[in-house]
Amino acid sequence: MHSAIVIDDSGSHSSVQDTVQMLSDVKSFADIIVVSRRASPDSFPQGIWITAESLVDGLSQATAVAASKRVLIVNTTLAFSFTDLSKLVAEIENRSVLEHVIVTPTADDVATDMPEISPESIVQSLNRFDIWPLLCVSTSRYALSVVQSDKVESVTEMILHALIHSIADGDTVHSSNLISPLIHPAALETISTLSAAAKARSLQLAVDKMNIEELFPNHNWASFSQESAAAAYHSLAALFLRFQDSEIAAQCLSCSERLEDSPRYFALQGLIQYAQGETLGAVANLVSSLQAYEARKKNDGTHYLNFAPQDFDTIKARMAEGLEALNKRDNVRALASFSDAVFNFDSFYRDYGVADTAAPKLKQ
User: Fold this and answer.
1) Among candidates 153, 19, 138, which has minimal Cα distance to 73?
2) What phi and psi, each to the nearest 5 degrees, are found at residue 363?
3) Whole-prediction pTM value?
4) What is the pLDDT of residues 195-228, one digit of tens each?
5) Which residues are within 8 A (CB) of 303 and not within 5 positions of it... i.e. 6 or more apart?
6) CA 322 to each of CA 152, 275, 297, 356, 362: distance values in angstroms, whole numbers, following the listed order
7) CA 326, 361, 338, 200 torsion: positive or negative?
8) What CATH class does 220-357 carry?
9) At the topology level of CATH, where does 2-209 sit?
């Protein structure tokens, strides 16, 4: 049996009451708790109504008083059909408390893309997805209770942190298409979009709770353990940099320094320096990166990663432009040219989004 927690995100008492009524009709919940920033209406006849300063605070309070170990969180912006919740309850009641289920909603007649949440996928999911439609989730009271609610900015982030804690403990997270409640696209974007800061906190939680080998299982750990670890830390540094946390990015990069003398190390060091206002130092590191990439064009078998650019003419042109800019003491243009050369040498920076966010744009 689940406790149901209703998140009042619709701004309408009628939507709350409709959702509560549908849940009550199922008759399979130990209790029903409404979390809202508004006072309870006089006509609210059933369940517990928690009025809180924020929905995050309210969800934390609801978790503390929930009667069941298992919790179904339902957002009032979702529109369910008459039998949806009965079908969902029939599915989740057979699940263990160690299994968590996310219902995939539909917006504009299209099922939303649901990020995969597992140790081996969470880094790439945070890389690829801004919208996390965690609007109808079966999880556990324990998972929600261990989240530091004062360090998250939204209910979506709080639920994601709960699920990250869970997969770190060995639990599983499944996406369900058994039902597909409707949501307006604007509401989906408003409620479910994670900010850069929220993604940085979520990534840091995953890194703190799981081993680096779990997060990057496709690296060649058996034959190139140190280079694989360095590549993993480079990926994390790139993401933290993209998520505008240059301090944590620098810490990840520092972990990689003793593992491998990589061209990515110098490039990321330069981009971090640029983010911290050290343009001249950033230029020097981008130049060092290009020199290291040049030395690694041919893989002699001693390295896990191979760097073979397809358009070396563009790289040479950008390098020449960078040197010309340096001679004119235009450090920002030099950095833009050298960084663009690096980005053409290695798709890594585009794959992790730093090519578009962490360097000055080259003006033609």
Assistant:
1) 138
2) -95, 125
3) 0.94
4) 999 999 999 999 999 999 999 999 989 888 999 9
5) 224, 227, 296
6) 42, 19, 21, 18, 10
7) positive
8) mainly alpha
9) Spore Coat Polysaccharide Biosynthesis Protein SpsA; Chain A (3.90.550)
